[in-house]
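Recall the central idea of this unit: under ordinary conditions, the amino acid sequence of a chain determines the structure it adopts. In this exercise we apply that idea directly, starting from the sequence alone.
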Amino acid sequence: MVDPIFRHEVLQLRGKEGVPWIRLLWRRARRLNSSDLGAALSLFLLFLGFRRSREAVQQHLATFAAGVQGIVHYAADHIHIGSASVPADLSDLHQSRRVDANSSPYRGPGRRQRSRDEEKIRPLGDLKRQKTPDAGAFPSSSMAATVSASAPRAQPETKVERFVTAATKHLDDVLIFLVGYKVALLVLYTMPGEYFFGAKRRFLRWASRATLFRMYLRLAPAIGFGIVAAATAAVRLSKEPLEAGTVKRWQAFAGLNTVLTYCTLRLFELIRGDPEPMFSLEDTAHDRDVLSAEAPSVAFSRMATVPWRWLTPPVFLGMDAIPPARRKILFVGNHSIWALDVLLLLNGLYEQLGIWARPLGEHSWFSLPVVGEIVAHIGVIDGTRHNCDLLMGRGDNLLVYPGGARESWKRTTDPKYAILWKEHHVGFVLMAIRHGYSIVPVATVGTEDVFEPVVDLPISRILTAGGLLPTPKKGTSKAFDQNAKLPLVIPRLDQAQRVYFRFMPAITTAEFQGEEKNLAVVTRLRDVVRASLQEGIDFLLEHRKVDPDRFVFQHRSHL
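Accordingly, the structure predicted from this sequence is:
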């Protein structure tokens, strides 16, 4: 009797007319797509087809033993050398030799009588020692002809045997290639969209519409099943039993290839025709990660800056200029070479004032695996307007360097501590006005006297492999700008000195609310910030001249 609670489910399974279970399973099987069917058939062959039955193994061993016995009898019955011949049964020969030797009256040394069978077998034993002038190593020149004429000829291989031989020889290479190819596809599919300057999104947009790739996805289950079938045929039809390690290796690679094929097909079903919904899902997860980041501990912050604080001890001036609210502050600084002073500034704000400023980083940092995770761990975020809106929407403090990569990659021809802002660098002012933030300029001096550029590397040519790789779209990274250079720097330990930071008076944006789209207002406010920053740089250059503890090693030697 059917439980009333599950009656509805049972009726759905059986159907209105009580469909038999076997017919129900057949109907469900007909609904399987190509990926499900291919995976099911491949796994079936993997678990059942690779097993060689005990009868098959015994048959192979019996065939091998019969072949060996046939060769022995053939040699005993048909090979003749002169008048001597091999007896048909070697066991009888040895038995007769033992009987004659035991029954002979001449058993003394040197007087042993040879039996007739020993005389018959003697020429065979002396073949390697006897040589005739005409026949060389053999006493009769007709022996080779007799052997070659009477020996059985090798049968030519059939098509099935040639196929099994080829499959056995190349199956490892084919399986390794397919597994590696599908692993690369899955890595490309699952890696963050920012890696390699958006390579994943470009590929998925192409794959979602490319006819060739769709054809591959449809044929992939059949290809995988064909590879498993070839491996099964090689295991079952090979002339000699294969080693257990080889069979297990094929089974493991074929099973892994089947699973990867199924996963690849199911994942690419999500982007068929339009990958944008999946991109939106990734963006939502990225936004959640940006907002959920927490400040590191003070101990970790100090530990991460130990080398910098030892070589370039920081000095902070004008911290009283920071608004007491300690929120909705946009710190704007001038980039030192290679941004080597950023960690010192972040640690000083966090350790002395409890302010965790989130730096807006260059796009290229987040395009490199591992590097993006490292900089994100210390709170750096990709400097896009979308990320700024997220953090400014809840009042987080931010740190921005409008000069970007160009200012941090100062060339050998650029003056030290130069502010390299282009005219279109007004985004930080626009965002500050939109969200009502206070702008605090932060001037820094000292790093570029310790680390000097010695040569300029053509970074754009390096990242595009000399022009072989396509250049990403404009705005992806300053590294791909025309004639972009990356300076190679060396430390000058004799010039190790303090790094000075000065916080300039805060610039409020409350009076400009609603004017973020007014380019004239935004540009004028940007120039005010730059002028304040330049004033701070000039002040620090003069201040360090009268600082007796400016140079690190001179001060320590004095102590």
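The radius of gyration is 42 Å.
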